[in-house]
Amino acid sequence: MSSPKTIRWGILATGGIAVTFTKDLLVDPSTRGVKHIKHTVVAAASSSSRSRAEQFLKETGCPADAKAYGSYEELVKDPDIDIVYIATPHSHHYQNAMLCLDAGKNVLCEKAFTVNAAQARALADKAREKNLFLMEAVWTRYFPLSIYVREQITAGRIGPVARVFADNSMATNPEEAFHDGKHRLVNPDLAGGALLDLGIYSLTWIFQTLYLTQPENQRKPPKVLAALKNYSPTKAADETTTIVLSFPRPEEAGGEAHAIATTSLRVATTPGSEAAAPPGIRIQGPKGEIQVFPPAYRPTRTKIVLNDGTVEDKEWPQPGPGAGSGWYNGFGGGKNAEGEGHGMFWEADEAATALVEGRKEGKYESLAESIVIMDVMDEARKQGGLVYPEKIETTKYPTQL
Ligand SMILES: NC(=O)c1ccc[n+]([C@@H]2O[C@H](COP(=O)([O-])OP(=O)(O)OC[C@H]3O[C@@H](n4cnc5c(N)ncnc54)[C@H](OP(=O)(O)O)[C@@H]3O)[C@@H](O)[C@H]2O)c1
């Protein structure tokens, strides 16, 4: 067997998810049975200062010779970088991804991909023009759990999917938790609100079960009906959004299929104990349903319940360096068990594999699908009257944010 190919990453931004991603990225891939690639971090950049980038490299355990930059512009000029991971707020993804692509860098860009579909289309065009890899970092799609769910569907376990319910909501008191209005969940300048931040996962589950599982030439965009409640203190950011989707399908594939995507900053998918959590995702067909338990973005349990009485409950623990390693990861104050990965390495493995194979898009979410999902979010915002400031909706590049 040939030796693993090492992919050299540059990390653009040093906030919460950049830390979680980079720690996962540096876990030995053989701990999850991946032998053909390895990852290393050769540089990180912070828009605030070089010293912040230095601190980030230390905090995440990057190699001692990794370079620290005090601007994103310097990072994208680094000739040693194969691919840049973008971890800024979604308001900034378009400008940052354009910067990378223009400089000839492959890109893995955090979700939501962009603020609107026009920006997503412009990025896809630029990546094609430059012959570069570009993928939205919807990590959940690359989990073995997600692959299993899609396989159960295409194997016909529940029959043609007829309906999907998908919720991703977190109970906060936003007025208290984000009282100064600056947090990215409520700040219009950062494309705040539930839809782009949390609702993307509800849509991810609907799309990966109802759309991606269809033959490529049969996938059609859904009709959309949406209700959107604005968060009154900062005006342009949604607090709760509900979307009804109707997917056209050929009669022989089951005909029209429905889905409901819900998301909220104020009410929870799981009130109280995680142990008693109801499934946040229910994928239903004529023979039964597949349930996925919360959280929608990092699920670790599935259940298949069939009309014939079959029940298959499965746990999907995240691999990692293991107990006794003294290594920890987590996000936003949450800490996983010792040695347990967060699960962000799966998407990094896919991006690295694509580079090795010369592919320009991700295997489980094409750019065309990211664009259709952005179209759905645009339509939900249009029906709900949610418009962000022009400087973050624009496709004009460069625009100073
Ligand atoms: N996949 C997941 O599970 C997951 C989880 C959370 C968030 N996310 C996504 O990741 C992105 C970042 O989220 P986060 O939680 O990491 O946010 P965060 O902690 O606020 O970090 C964002 C970073 O972006 C940089 N930045 C540049 N311009 C900024 C500006 N005007 N305001 C704020 N930050 C700015 C800053 O880094 P520098 O100062 O170093 O430039 C900042 O630390 C969002 O798109 C979010 O949806 C994904």
Automatic annotation (TrEMBL):
Protein EC: 1.1.1.179
Family: Belongs to the Gfo/Idh/MocA family.
Name of the protein: D-xylose 1-dehydrogenase (NADP(+), D-xylono-1,5-lactone-forming)
UniProt domain GFO/IDH/MocA-like oxidoreductase: residue ranges: 149-290
GO molecular function per UniProt: D-xylose 1-dehydrogenase (NADP+) activity; nucleotide binding
Pfam families: GFO_IDH_MocA, GFO_IDH_MocA_C3
InterPro entries with a match to the protein in the record: Gfo/Idh/MocA-like_OxRdtase_N, Gfo/Idh/MocA_domain, GFO_IDH_MocA-like_dom, NAD(P)-bd_dom_sf
Organism field: Trematosphaeria pertusa
Domain of life: Eukaryota
Catalytically driven reaction(s): D-xylose + NADP(+) = D-xylono-1,5-lactone + NADPH + H(+)
Record keywords: Oxidoreductase
Sequence ranges assigned to domain Gfo/Idh/MocA-like oxidoreductase N-terminal in this UniProt record: 38-135
